[in-house]
């Protein structure tokens, strides 16, 4: 009995060691070999298209891989160029127009405050009878000086913030070497994909191979379904934003729509980070029709997303909502926003490992039910 417990403890240590080594290898691989990790993932995504060219157009594996990789690189380059151009235009528009808009907002607020304070001043003056014309002019001058200083401070603060964002964008560590290595690695991984799979299969025990063979297929189906659902949600929100801003006759509709689409990807943030401050600004600046329009547009986006999201995601995650919520919160506590983005994929991976039977296989190994 004691020997059996020792063997079980030893097997448990082996399983924990294997899990720890796997996580450590994945972490170190991403830290030091991230171009190759990204290239491997892209190569896996490009395999159906490469195989399609091989079967339908009777092309060689090398030439089909070259065509698909070049097309993918051109598509991504065009996409990022479009995003970069629109981002530069948006930042330039904000840097040139926002200070003036902010000054008008501060003038409007101070004017309203002055209108509200003047009757009170007259009442106080009537009650106390101590404020003469000189003091009244002094109070008016003080309000104007305060208004000018507040406008200058807010405009300077916003200008510094926008300059910081511009500098951060300009100083992004775009490593040309890593980009070239990643493209070459994607080509070689894609070309030799069948050989890589053969090597992995030859080094993997048959029992694990039979159980683990279900993992890539289920994981690919689940992640593909989740990505399709998110793309549908984001495209729907983007279309609503574009139509709504066009109806409201807003300048730079395309730039604002692209920024809102990018923000909409972040969980629990969404487009509210854009529309709520914008509506508040419009209200305090006296643009009540714009405030109503933005509020209605944001409400339509939120309601549409709340109606579509459960239906689109429920069939793909297959986990209780409370577990998904716990995973999102834990990911945010550990890694911040990146953790919230990655946690659904981690949950899906764990679920796939469970449904594939690997957890049962590990349990059987620990208990000694399986040699």
Mean pLDDT: 75
Query: How many beta-strand segments?
Result: 0
Count of alpha and pi helical runs? 13
Main structural class: mainly alpha
Main sheet makeup: none
Quick overview:
The chain is mainly α and 371 residues long. It is built from 13 helices and no strands. It folds into three domains: 159 residues, no CATH class; 88 residues, no CATH class; 54 residues.
Could you characterize the architecture of this molecule?
- This protein has helices at residues 2-56, 61-128, 133-170, 176-191, 193-203, 206-212, 214-247, 253-264, 272-284, 288-317, 321-335, 337-355, 358-367.
- By secondary structure, the protein is mainly α.
- The mean pLDDT is 75.
- Belongs to the autoinducer-2 exporter (AI-2E) (TC 2.A.86) family.
- The chain crosses the membrane at residues 9-26, 32-50, 62-85, 168-189, 226-248, 254-276, 283-303, 323-350.
- This is Sporulation integral membrane protein YtvI.
- Its main location: membrane.
